[in-house]
Amino acid sequence: MNRDRQLPEDGTLTHEVVELRVHGVSGTTAETLLDHPVVIRVAGDDNAGFYRPRPGFGISDRPGGLKVEAYRWGALTAGAAVRTLSLLFLLPFMLVNLAVWARPATGGAGGLIGPLCRLLAATLTAAFVLSVVGVSIDLVGWQCVGYQPCRAGRGYLAWLGSIPLGPRLAILALLPIAALRLLWWLGARSSRAFEAFPAMPGQARDALGEDRIDEPGFWNDAIVVRRLLTLHVAVGLGILDTILLGAQIHLRPTPVVYVLFGTAWCLLAIAAVLLCRPARAIDEGPGRGPVDMRGVRRLRQATTVVTLLALAYTVVPLEPEPPHGQLPGYEGAVAALIAVQAGLLIALTVTTWNQRRRSRARTPLWLGGLAGPLLATAAVAAAYGFAAALVYRVADFLDRSDIPNPARPDRPGAPPLEPPVSYRWAALAGLAAIMVVAIAALWRIVATRRRRRRMAEQIVRRDFPDPPPEALPQRAAVREVVARAAFTEQLGPIFIVFLVLSLLGVAIVALDLIGVGPSELSRYLARTDGQATTNLSLVTDVGIYVIGLVAAGIVVLGLASYRSEGTRRSVAVIWDLGTFWPRTVHPFAPPCYAERAVPELAKRIGALARRGGVILSGHSHGSVLAAATLLQLPPEVLPRVALLTHGSPLHRLYSRLCPAFLGDDVLYEIGDRIGWRWVNLWRDTDPIGGPVFSAHWPGQPPRVPPPAGTVDRRLRDPVEVTVPPDDTVPPRIDQHWPYHTDPQYEAAVRELAGRLDPDLLHLSRDR
Asked: DSSP for 87-149?
């Protein structure tokens, strides 16, 4: 209604307007964000705070009454070391939690996608427990300690050899419990530290779910996290119980152990049913709380009792026959779990595809709307890749670097350290996926290079039509930067290849249900001879080493991020994308920083709007936080707010990856709520940011008419390819950062300040 209003000719505002800057991924200092040498914190704390230039030091504020403030939230996502460790150990949990947020937009609650993702998340917890069980109970307690050659020279294992088998297994069962308790502690601690942050008055959640991002209290899912924590601990303990009791059935079958075994399976089934039900809350009252938390707590108590009884039954020192081979039932449990995951992944893919056909998305979705199944499949693949590397490396260590397989038969008197065949399949599938995806990525780079360069050439010719001869090398450099930035849109086929290979790999791994490994299958189907079988075994060993190198590479990447800003930003992009959404699927995923950042921003904007106007300026991922914040503001605050986004991935990434929550319909709704007081700045050289509504390719008209068609404003980067008269080098290519130093940024701020309604601002100040 006031889009044409500008600042007065003298540049002086008749009302107080604060430009509130929100940084993007990898964080930055408040001094850099404000372009000021000395700043003071005016609200918040060390984890996330609001800063202003300190008066008396440099230029504190712009002339004319326009003030500037910065929101620094980077400490919420922790440091490079924590990010690296989380990417390594919590990556599967983070990916499966992200999968549910990538569902197509159908206008509903997601149908079966939520329950399927929650069940898949529970199987990842079970896989985590099984991997620790495989190392502690199977390899160490059952296969290694009972043999003198394995204990020789290892005092830390010798004491276990003097303990009867039952007590030994019970003692080693404490390791999976401790690992599960560590994950519980991390989840509960992060929930207290970052999540459940108080929202603005009137924004308390009245229903728990993930239907709309503008729901009151959407970013307060503490109850959901607590519920999931309880259920996942119950699942982890139930898996441990079934393994222990299954082994006891093999050693000394009695009616008691059969009853306990059946009870453990019943409790796992109850946990699965509860996971299929979304958490719902009722009005709090005396002695009342969430509807289904009572049942969840009772499940946890029952599982704890069964675990104690299982440990008590296992610890009875009845010496059975010496163990041979693997822990009874363990390999079958791993194979059965992978088969269940394969079925869930197929069901998730089919369900997502059906919902995609009913999608209301206006623009093509990333991967045709199959981003959710891709992320879930990647979570399963990462989980079993890391599990296979862990189990085989421990077996390699225990049998002194001599893993038995057809290429290296057991030595006389050596322990039969045989990890499950499923892990050998996982190693082979992981090696194949890594190699094929790497080849596909190289092919995609080469295949699209000519088209990207042709597009980039059109851009640089339009921006720099007649450069002098000495500026041609700089113009060529700009063309290459633009061509590289356009590669983001070419990643789809690579991920499709990964999705197909991973689904095929998970399905093949389930062949272990019938005891068939890679070597056996090659003999049965291809009628290969012994040498071919040996070579295939060597290839699977290579897969184990490659997966281990990938894990080591993640650690190296984290260490490198301390020294390299570019590397740190790349790691931060993955981290901040994965931890932006609430943990409604897996409670052991890294904490959701937005559950504090969004309500905190909303509260601060509400306070500033009572004194005047606010220009919310979000860079990169900060623009996503800004959009989510605007959707949480009360209606009476919105007329006093304008939005400035720059380097924004709102459409280029989030609208296509998470269409149900930040799709085009939601972006149009944001514009309507703030009266289209919105300017979006973008560059062709930016590999992350882009336009929100207009066409990206040069020479094309906007896709939509005004007012949405006037939001996007392209910045030329660099401003020139020739050397300025007062400089010695050409202007730098800014790409993704910074934007706020561009003169057009300042012009956009002043334009938005003038478009804020002075009458409303005076009214708010008088109140």
From this structure: HHHSHHHHHHHHHGGG----SSS-TTHHHHHHHHHHHHHHHHHHHHHIIIIIIIIIIITTSHH
